[in-house]
Specification:
The protein has 499 residues and is of the alpha/beta class. Helix content is 34%, strand content 20%. The chain folds into three domains: 6-166, no CATH class; 178-342, 3-Layer(aba) Sandwich (Rossmann fold); 350-496, Rossmann fold. It has helices spanning 6-15, 18-26, 37-50, 97-110, 143-151, 178-182, 190-203, 221-234, 249-256, 288-299, 319-324, 326-333, 350-360, 381-394, 463-471, 486-496; strands at residues 63-67, 74-80, 84-91, 116-123, 128-132, 138-141, 210-215, 239-243, 261-263, 277-281, 306-311, 339-342, 373-378, 398-399, 431-438, 442-444, 450-452, 474-483.
Length: 499
Amino acid sequence: MKPVNLVSVTCAKHDFEEHFLELYLNNFGIKLKDIKEVDWNSLLAFFKKYKEVAFIQHFENFFWGYRINQIPKEFDLLRISEESVINIELKSENTGCEITNQLIKNKYYLNFLKRKIISFTYVTNEEKLFKLTDNDELVEADFEELVLEIDGQEEMFVGNVNDLFDPSNYMVSPFNSTEKFLDDEYFLTDHQKATSTNIIKSFNNKTCRLFSIQGGAGTGKTLLTYDIAKKIESEGHKVLIIHCGYLNEGHKKLKKSGWKIIPIYELEDYKLDEFALIILDEAQRIRKDQFDYLIKHIKKEGSKSKIIFSYDEIQCLSIHEIKRNIPKEIRNLVAEENSHKLTDKIRSNEELSVFIQNLFYKRTNKKYTYNNIEIQYFSKPSLARKYLKHLHHNTDWKVIDFTESDRVKYPYDEYLVRGKDNSHRVIGQEFDDVVAVIDQYFYFNSKGELSTKGWRHKPFYHPTKMLYQNVSRARNKLKIIIINNQEMLNHCLKILNNN
């Protein structure tokens, strides 16, 4: 998005028919379909009042309706210089404390620009301007004060505002941004908020015992699940989180802060009756006997515990996990009104998402401009391993191994780095820059789906599922290492070149 002159925008709104107005606004990266009638009315009301004291230069260099990429955070008006950011929110009516809370929340997002933040709100039905003080108090202001603040801005930023905002700053994970999570420095989408409110309200209903949250990679399932745990516990209830996998460093930090989190193999060591809420995280991976043990506890006479199943049926890594199909068991148990599904990928880079979809399904062929995907080819596993070890030890790239078997030697053993991160240990986590490997055993089957062939032993862990797990951990950049597989190299190059 590029900055606009507010006089110009209001002239265009008055003079142009819709199709030409759309073309004009597109010039600045503004989509007409995203502008509601209330947005136009608020802007025109603000302009009418503002022009009483402002000159033409005071209308220049505003970003209107900017939304940070990949997250649902929007600002009405931003004016950005090298030293400061002026944020003006436009309200049709006075919403009391909500005005203050919005400006404070906006400051959190804008503070990453490392500039002084100056915050205003204009309420159109009162024709009043308000300013947020340095102490986060809302006071009435006048437009002359706004003009003075604008006059104080020099060396204006007039480029693409997306270049200033890094979405990864705001994508908080309980595991990889644990301190921010504990300090409530994160956001939930409207859908997540509604789901959280619904589950907490139903939790206090004695008749509701079983709940589920389903979501794929990047939908914010883990953040939502842990946010609910935090809120339930804040109401004075004891919460137990059972993680169906290895505990990561984020889990350990949360435990040090007083959270009760255990790996699934410790299930029978705890008296479940002590907990009002039990959360089964990554529930798709639980064994059937462990699942039955939990359900027996929930259903026994006198039990007051309730359970939330949090799962992603795509993220089954072993053949046994796929066959036992725990997600189907959950769907059969949980009432429809207590089953919640997240579909919007709010925490995944759109570029990476499109590439991954194209990578796994040959016939998808979605077009995109790729700037954060890198492909490296090596003819031998030994050469690839040397390069992977270099990346692991000498760079910020996160090399994620396929999970090693304790019993059988698999083809990928030849190039494992054997660091601490493999497909199983990174479940639920996110990393800025990720490295994943595609070797000579990957190919496209007759359905055009990525698969593997030629293994001496039938794999215990599903290779394609593990590859998906590895690449979907990336937040900003993805590096694919291809070993002796020209078919896959050709496919990846076609994706990058939109062929």
